[in-house]
Design brief:
The chain is mainly alpha-helical and 353 residues long. It has two domains: 3-196 and 315-351, Rossmann fold (3-Layer(aba) Sandwich), CATH 3.40.50.620; 219-309, Tyrosyl-Transfer RNA Synthetase, CATH 1.10.240. It has helices spanning 17-33, 45-49, 56-73, 90-98, 104-108, 111-120, 128-131, 133-143, 156-173, 191-194, 219-227, 248-256, 259-265, 272-281, 286-311, 315-344, and strands spanning 3-9, 36-43, 81-84, 148-150, 184-186. Bound molecules: adenosine-5'-triphosphate and magnesium ion (MG). Adenosine-5'-triphosphate is lined by residues 9-10, 12, 18-19, 22-23, 151-152, 154-155, 194-196, 204-208.
């Protein structure tokens, strides 16, 4: 059986390097391999509203931004159905029925939710919609029969929750035919890329934390951000030995630098191992490494920026593509919704003679 792929992003801002390395890169690889039955990417506006209820405009305006980021980074809307979550109303119905299968204490134990509640200061003002979003996300995943999803590490607990809902649904309603498929999260083998750190070196790179390099940042902005990035607090003089672990400049190099970059931008070294070795030994300054990183990032970002410019001339087309894809996604979701209701015994039309 071929895979059904689904992933998504919250339209709370532009996409950043963390999105790319944690999920988007793999999404593009899967798209180009072409070995799937269906492929959806959802712009999760409903989910974004769970902690942005008063900022509808921000969420609304970022839908097109995220869509442009996808296309500029290499997602092909002809191969992938990019849709808007709130335009597929069936997802709310799945959510409603799933809510009866999950306890509040289970949601409260979700480690990603726990961390996000703290980060957002929701301890005493927790919106029900926010704590409920793992259930709504399970609905997104299960509605389409998702088999795999390339995501960042923070999404693992969401997939665990979705799988528990499948089990609970099966135990409760004992469907004669399979309704929901067990979904699997695909995460990067490199732990650092599952949760790319932000420029501050503390939190994960995140739209909400203001510690990101965005795919749409211009060259001067990238340079300015990299020059302020956290390295090693004890590496004060060039001659001091430096530490690689926890040094975000080296983490970003791990993620984006290729051997050919050395020949082009830093020919004194052959590869990243040599550069790291010199840094550890002492005698290599942060500024030199940072300048190299700017070149490496520019090599990656400049073509994305070019395609973004091109997209800006096709805004109406992109919106129309999103609307049409949402209509198609709605048809797909409805099919499984009917199956689900049948399995639950919610098929009142059978009373008609
Ligand atoms: P917000 O701050 O609004 O939650 P975000 O930056 O966390 O935004 P999301 O839209 O929540 O981004 O995440 C979209 C996808 O990108 C998810 O699969 C998530 O795991 C992944 N992702 C987000 N940030 C990172 C990161 N720093 N490293 C790796 N993957 C990430
Ligand atoms: Mg997030």
């Amino acid at each position: 059986m071929k895979d059904i792929i689904l992933t998504g992003d919250r339209p709370t801002g532009n996409l950043h390097l963390g999105h790319f390395i944690g999920s988007l890169k793999k999404r593009i690889e899967l798209q180009n391999e072409g070995n799937y039955e269906k492929y959806y990417i959802m712009i999760a506006d409903t989910q974004a509203l769970t902690d942005n209820a008063q900022r509808v405009d921000k969420v609304k305006n970022n839908i097109i931004q995220v869509a442009i980021d996808y296309i500029s980074a290499g997602i092909d809307p002809k191969k992938v159905n990019i849709f808007i979550q709130s335009m597929v109303s069936e997802l709310h119905e799945f959510t409603s029925y799933f809510m009866n299968l999950v306890t509040l204490s289970r949601l409260q134990r979700n480690p990603t939710i726990k961390e996000e509640i703290k980060q957002r200061g929701f301890e005493t003002s927790l919106p029900i919609g926010f704590i409920n979003y793992p259930i709504s996300q399970a609905a997104d995943i299960l509605a389409f029969g998702t088999t795999i999803a390339p995501v960042g590490g923070d999404q693992m607990p969401m997939f665990e929750q979705a799988r528990e809902i499948v089990n609970s649904f099966n135990n409760t309603y004992k469907p004669q035919e399979e309704v929901f498929v067990m979904p699997k999260a695909i995460v990067s083998e490199n732990k650092l890329f599952q949760r790319l750190p932000g420029l501050d070196g503390k939190l994960k790179m995140s739209k909400s934390a203001g510690n990101s390099i965005y795919l749409c940042d211009d060259e001067a902005t990238v340079r300015e951000k990299v020059m302020k990035a956290y390295t090693d607090a004890n590496h004060l003089k060039v001659t001091d030995p430096g530490q690689i672990e926890g040094n975000v400049v080296f983490t970003y190099l791990d993620a984006f630098c290729r051997e050919e970059h050395f020949a082009r931008f830093l020919p004194e070294y052959e590869n990243l191992d040599q550069l790291k070795e010199h840094y550890r030994r002492g005698g290599l300054g942060d500024v030199k490494v940072k300048k190299f990183l700017v070149n490496v990032l520019e090599d990656f970002l400049a073509p994305i920026r070019e395609r973004r410019k091109e997209c800006l001339n096709h805004i109406d087309e992109i919106y129309n593509m999103l609307f049409e894809n949402s209509r198609l996604a709605s048809i797909d979701a409805k099919e499984r919704l009917e199956k689900m209701k049948d399995a639950m015994g919610l098929n009142y039309k059978k009373f008609l003679k």
